[in-house]
Write a structure and sequence with these properties.
It contains 18 helices and 10 strands. By secondary structure, it is of the alpha+beta class. It has one domain: Cytochrome P450 (Cytochrome p450). The strands form 3 sheets. A 5-stranded mixed β-sheet has the order 1-2-8-5-3, with helices on both faces. A 3-stranded antiparallel β-sheet has the order 4-10-9. Strand 6 and strand 7 form a beta hairpin. It is globular, with a radius of gyration of 23 Å. The relative contact order is 0.15. Bound molecules: protoporphyrin IX containing FE and 2-acetamido-2-deoxy-beta-D-glucopyranose (2 copies). Protoporphyrin IX containing FE binds next to helix 6, helix 12 and helix 18.
């Protein structure tokens, strides 16, 4: 949530304070005339409650900002953050309503500075029928039959390759990021890890840092560095796209995402620039998300020995039925029920995507209130996932809770780590498979303990810089498997 740097804000405060106070008064007045705004506190002019939001996210309590306001105002409340009046929802029905009405009553909305980093043809920014077409192309590219028949072999091999290279002390978060980046590059354009992919990743890390330095880019060197790095990444990728286009015209096709894009995705063809933006966005979307879940699953397992033992038993059983170096297949993946509980529970308590921002395209009525046209809306998944009313002892890591019910007490709109509606995450199955395979090789080949000095806090409230170093011990001669 550290979406910007607070210091820059004060520069803007004085000149615009009068103007904004005026606008806020107008808004409140119009609220009184017929429309009822959700209850809440819009805070100070311009900065609103932004500073409270940031302060809250620097503490260890997962949801202090939202908790406090839900108690005072209810599950749907108004506030004013990042320079705009915003309605927060901690209510599953309202969240579902927001997700399902994407493109009708609400549309996704990112700050300008983020759009520059993503590129204007990114799936995250597309709207309307083009979005629909590209979303379904992306969905079908990552669907379960493609994973089963094509991607799983590489996922298994590349994860094994990464683990082979571990020394006795590793920075788990770093390795997890390397893994997810390598997997995405492989699946998008059939690259195996090499010096080129690693130097691309170095630039890439700078781009990602830019995402956490907005929306006052003029003041931010991190942001400027990110824009430069983005240009470099785009150049490197355009080169690849051009080469592949030539090969493609000469009749050499590859069955990867880039191949599908070069084929035109079932419509008129895409330009190189469109394809590059699209690839950049896919790399962004899967990188930080999947790697934090991998790392935090390990952290929670380490702190919950009974869960780790049960997970290990599940995976040892799978291993026992295979040759030492044999890769996992789809049946193996499908016989990991407890692993899925662990993954769901990690997604529930520790997803770095706490929710999604939208903008109201028109006046929208929810729960007897009006969200005025143009206002921002934040559908908080995390607030629902950590609500005692929906999950017993919601703030405890308890993978067994998923065992007993398998969905009965948690209908689809309560647990939404991957969003929903027209923008449902196209990587939801892929992420699950990647995390499962990673856990498989980790627990069957290694034991570990965390290195004392750099323990992750319970919850990644602020974007954690921590890398979760662990000491590992290898249990087999897996070095021979490459
Ligand atoms: C644990 C891992 C992941 C989590 C928690 C996650 C979560 C999400 C969520 C909540 C959204 C919805 C955003 C919105 O509604 O505005 C989303 C969208 C998206 N995700 Fe994921 N994701 C994960 C992994 C991945 C992976 C591995 C990929 C790559 C294939 C991916 C690609 C995308 C894309 C392209 C979108 C944009 C979809 C659109 O706007 O139409 N995600 N993700
Ligand atoms: C997955 O996508 C492919 C096209 O990429 C399609 O042929 C197949 O039917 C899809 N499978 C499922 C289970 O949706
Ligand atoms: C995990 O969550 C998904 C929804 O993302 C759900 O479909 C699935 O049934 C859950 N798995 C378990 C074991 O409860």
């Amino acid at each position: 949530m550290e979406l910007f740097q607070a210091s820059g804000l004060t520069c803007l405060l004085i000149p615009t304070a009068f103007f904004v106070t005026f606008v806020l008064l107008l808004l409140r007045a119009s609220g009184r005339r017929g429309r009822r705004l959700p209850p809440g506190n819009l805070g100070l002019p311009v900065i609103g409650e932004t500073l409270q939001l940031i302060a809250a996210y620097k503490t260890e309590n997962p949801e202090p900002f939202i908790d406090d306001r839900v108690r005072r105002f209810g599950a749907v409340f108004a506030t004013h953050v990042f320079g705009e009046p915003t309605v927060f929802s901690a209510d599953p029905e309202t969240n579902r309503f927001i997700l399902q009405n994407e493109g009708k009553l609400f549309e996704c909305s990112y700050p300008r500075s983020l759009c520059n980093l993503l590129g204007k043809h990114s799936l995250l920014l597309m709207k309307g029928s083009l979005h629909k077409r590209m979303h379904s192309l992306t969905m079908s590219f990552g669907n379960s039959s493609i994973i089963r028949d094509h991607l799983l072999v590489d996922i298994d091999r590349l994860i094994r390759l990464n683990l082979e290279s571990w020394s006795d002390r590793v920075l788990l978060m770093e390795e997890a990021k390397k893994i997810t980046f390598e997997l995405t590059l492989k699946q998008l354009m059939s690259f195996d890890p090499c010096d080129w992919t690693e130097s691309l990743r170095k630039e890439y890390v700078l781009v990602i840092e830019g995402f956490f330095s907005v929306p006052l880019p003029i003041f931010s060197t991190t942001y400027r560095r990110a824009i430069k790095a983005r240009t470099k990444v785009a150049e490197a990728l355009s080169l690849v796209v051009r080469q592949r286009r030539k090969q493609c015209e000469a009749g050499a096709r590859k069955k990867d995402m880039l191949g599908a894009l070069l084929d035109g995705g079932g419509g008129s063809g895409f330009s190189d620039e469109q394809i590059v933006d699209f690839l950049v966005a896919l790399l962004v979307a899967g990188y930080e998300t999947t790697s934090t879940i991998m790392t935090l699953a390990v952290k929670f397992l380490t702190e919950t020995p009974r869960a780790l033992a049960q997970l290990k038993e599940e995976h040892d059983k799978i291993r026992a039925g295979k040759y030492p170096c044999e890769g996992l297949d789809w049946n193996d993946y499908k016989s990991m029920p407890f692993t899925q509980c662990v993954i769901n529970e990690t997604l529930r308590v520790a997803n770095i995507i706490g929710g999604v921002f939208r903008r109201a395209m028109t006046d929208v009525n929810v729960k007897g209130y009006t969200i005025p046209k143009g206002w921002k809306v934040f559908a908080s998944f995390r607030a629902v996932h950590l609500d005692q009313d929906h999950f017993k002892e919601a703030r405890t890591f308890n993978p067994w809770r998923w065992q007993s019910n398998s969905g009965s007490t948690t209908p689809g709109n309560i647990f939404t780590p991957f969003g929903g509606g027209p923008r449902l995450c196209p990587g939801y199955e892929l992420a699950r498979v990647e995390i499962s395979v990673f856990l498989h090789h980790l627990v069957t080949r290694f034991s570990w303990e965390p290195a004392e000095e750099d323990k992750l806090v319970f919850f990644p409230t602020t974007r954690t810089q921590k890398r979760y170093p662990i000491y590992v011990r290898r249990h087999d001669a897996s070095g021979q498997c490459i």
